[in-house]
Amino acid sequence: xxxxxxxxxxxxxxxTVEPYLKKHRKSGYISSYDGIGKIHVMRYLxxxxxxxxxxxxxxTESAPKYDELVYYFLQAGYHVYLPxxxxxxxxxxxxxxxxxVHIDNWKRYVRDFLHVCEYIxxxxxxxxxxxxxxxxxxxxxxxxxxxxxEWFYRVILNSPMIRPRTANVPxxxxxxxxxxxxxxxxxxxxxxxxxxxxxxxxxxxxxxxSRPRFNRFNNRxxxxxxxxxxxxxxxxxxxxxxxxxxLKGIAWKLYRAPMLLIQAEQDDYVxxxxxxxxxxxxxxxxxxxxxxxxxxxxxxxxxSCDDKTMQYYVNKVLTFFA
Length: 322
Prior knowledge:
Layout: H1 9-24, E1 25-31, E2 38-44, E3 51-56, H2 67-75, E4 78-83, E5 100-101, H3 106-123, E6 129-134, H4 136-147, E7 154-158, H5 171-183, H6 211-223, E8 231-232, H7 234-249, E9 259-264, H8 272-285, E10 290-295, H9 307-321
Parallel strand pairs: 3-4, 3-6, 5-8, 6-7, 7-9, 9-10
Antiparallel strand pairs: 1-2, 2-4
């Protein structure tokens, strides 16, 4: 499949991709696993489906971030479902602060996601369900695939949050401090150094290596308040630590579906060496086949990169799902 060239990106997205997605898209809500809120789900239906791909998005992301990737999946013949996690996009939130990513318990993410997956399986009982999970979604989806291993046909963990980066603060200290803050009733407070959305993100400091791709989402984010989440609470940070512990301590030996783990060259959000180590543990255990892909010249958002890498990356993903 040919991917969109950077020099044509804005025109093709506006004149071809957006009308195509609008034609195939349905927006709706599904109750959270415990009924306290509504999960916003974008559904894109292929004309002659050969399978289903559910996208488990990352930290601070929302559905529009994946417009291009969804387009490729649809073109390849897959239905696509994209639920927005609690605290993200148009889904229910546990805090009134529009900039803050907050969660009360890491298992809420996994249970909500599996609740949506159960709905998908009932809607399409004759089609294989594939998982594409990125960053924080890689942790959520990575755990979900061990809780219900029989549900997923193929699993891709893209820059998965096996262990998050915490700037210049050692991970053990960050995890311990966040746990203490939660214990003292400060779980909904901003992590030290985090701040409300200010629209000042630049391409140079972003997780993308494709300026037109970065600009498209960033410009839209500036004008849509529901997309302006940008900062972690202590509750979220401690939840990320608990997911990391679960993945490294338990999950790696519970996989059954074939897996592809993808690592970027330069990643300021998750530890790349932990992804490589995680893949090797799965490979040694032999509970599931596991392929590891290292992408030179990329940052954390491997789906937002230069023309040559994007062409290779998208076709690698589609070949794996086929």
